[in-house]
Amino acid sequence: MKLTYLVPLAAFAVTALGSRSTPPNLTFLFSANLTKGSAYIYDQSETEIKALQALTGGTIGGPNFDGTVIGGTALSTRSADGTIRADAHYLIQTTDGANILVTESAAIPYVAVLFDTSSEKYNWLNNVTAWGTPPDLNEINFLEYWQVS
Amino acid sequence: MKLTYLVPLAAFAVTALGSRSTPPNLTFLFSANLTKGSAYIYDQSETEIKALQALTGGTIGGPNFDGTVIGGTALSTRSADGTIRADAHYLIQTTDGANILVTESAAIPYVAVLFDTSSEKYNWLNNVTAWGTPPDLNEINFLEYWQVS
Amino acid sequence: MKLTYLVPLAAFAVTALGSRSTPPNLTFLFSANLTKGSAYIYDQSETEIKALQALTGGTIGGPNFDGTVIGGTALSTRSADGTIRADAHYLIQTTDGANILVTESAAIPYVAVLFDTSSEKYNWLNNVTAWGTPPDLNEINFLEYWQVS
Amino acid sequence: MKLTYLVPLAAFAVTALGSRSTPPNLTFLFSANLTKGSAYIYDQSETEIKALQALTGGTIGGPNFDGTVIGGTALSTRSADGTIRADAHYLIQTTDGANILVTESAAIPYVAVLFDTSSEKYNWLNNVTAWGTPPDLNEINFLEYWQVS
């Protein structure tokens, strides 16, 4: 076995060569109506508030899939300058029975999203980078997500 | 001290109410010309390849800042279906001396990006969710990044 | 402001100099009787199973604190060689009302643990690295945790 | 395909039933003499300092393996109360050519450690949870690591 692989990882990463669109394309992916548990603050100082909040349910709807939110957890940090960063994992179960893990990294109210599933029907989501936000900031548990590509 | 905070975290997250644009706005943020070290494969099976790769340098240029890449590390997993997921941290130092941490989560060749800095000039980046990709997949170390909002 | 800090981070990390014990000390910290929801498998192949599982409750007891588990989420990956890796976050609320975030990284049945809390009474836990495992592998939801130092 | 797996993940996690030792066993695993680059502070306030620091090299020695540190990155946060938390990834290459990823989560000067490798000789490390610390806090780049089990 050769021990030091001199080929940059990038070299085996690209299977379809070509040029990308400028600016990126945005395609509506789905909307989510999330229900959440209480936010439990475990770290609070003059300059920072950190909290854990359960994602307890919700509904998902879009052109390519519908489903429910089984559950998950969000961890959030609010800084003195008003910045709120959050990381969340939750599981979607589609109406036709696929389980999809959703991983979110957010600068609230903006959310970057990745997906993981071995469902044959939905595994195209593994290559998707999406982005979501509440269209109405008075209704922050209703978000719309867009595929960026 | 009250121990269970019943106010949803979201409630203290939103400072500027209003409705969001549909679809999101994309604003060119910067381009990066990255240099990388060798990819070291530490886990290789018939179905998966995992590697660590150093980010050793590079140049950053955009309408709002220029700088250099001080360094960082990327961890990547290539699955049998061709999906490549990567997580990276690297540090940018701007030409006027600010240090900015860049955190990337990618479904290659698409990259979701968050920033961390206490620089007064650049701390608007803490609220930015960005997205990048190589405009030319034959030149994968040159990426363009767009602010999504 | 000086922009490149040449002092290694380590240099400002050490406040109490001295030599460490060899081998490390192990001090009983607490036991946990966890309750869990169903495991939802979102990625399954011949070589790997990945699942999300809710931590829905539980009781905590030890010489220095008692409490309940409010909730959290565990993400697990089982590989073909039988290795099971897991990452979990969950929140403990002590009987005297402090909220403590528990972060676990595990090579099952062994669990490395860190804590986060701003409670004055319990913030000594922020400096603790702990390690837990089920004393009886037939009762895997009952774990004992030890402080290593 | 059955969609909701009701069997707790834990149930398929345990292959070797039995009771665990109390207290845990500690076995010397290896020592590391690390070399580090400068610490770049990207977030500094009255209450917190966050920095990125490259791990640029080093030597590893133990009863079961010897090697060198290829490189990696550490991210650290120092809080006002003196707590220092760090997360690091780095790659070890053994003298007989295996690549091993080391993942560290630390409450400095204490470090929890996990390993990833597909090397047949060293893949027993995938099931190891280790713990390390500098035996002499005046020489903080020299750490000793112990397997906990």
Task: Produce the secondary structure layout.
The structure is a homotetramer of 149-residue chains.
Chain A: H1 9-13, E1 26-44, E2 48-61, E3 66-79, E4 84-94, E5 99-107, E6 110-116, E7 129-133, E8 142-148
Antiparallel strand pairs in A: 1-2, 1-8, 2-3, 3-4, 4-5, 5-6, 6-7, 7-8
Describe this structure in words.
- 4 copies of one chain form a homotetramer.
- Chain A is mainly beta and 149 residues long.
- Chain A is 3% helix and 58% strand.
- Chain A contains 1 helix and 8 strands.
- The first copy, chain A, has one helix at 9-13, and strands at 26-44, 48-61, 66-79, 84-94, 99-107, 110-116, 129-133, 142-148.
- An 8-stranded antiparallel β-barrel of chain A has the order 1-2-3-4-5-6-7-8.
- In chain A, a hairpin with a 4-residue loop joins strand 3 and strand 4 (84-94).
- The longest helix of chain A is centred in the first third of the chain and has 5 residues, at 9-13.
- Chain A is globular.
- The model of chain A is unreliable at 1-16 (pLDDT under 50).
- Chains A and B meet through helix 1, strand 1, strand 2, strand 3 and strand 4 of A and helix 1, strand 1, strand 2, strand 3 and strand 4 of B.
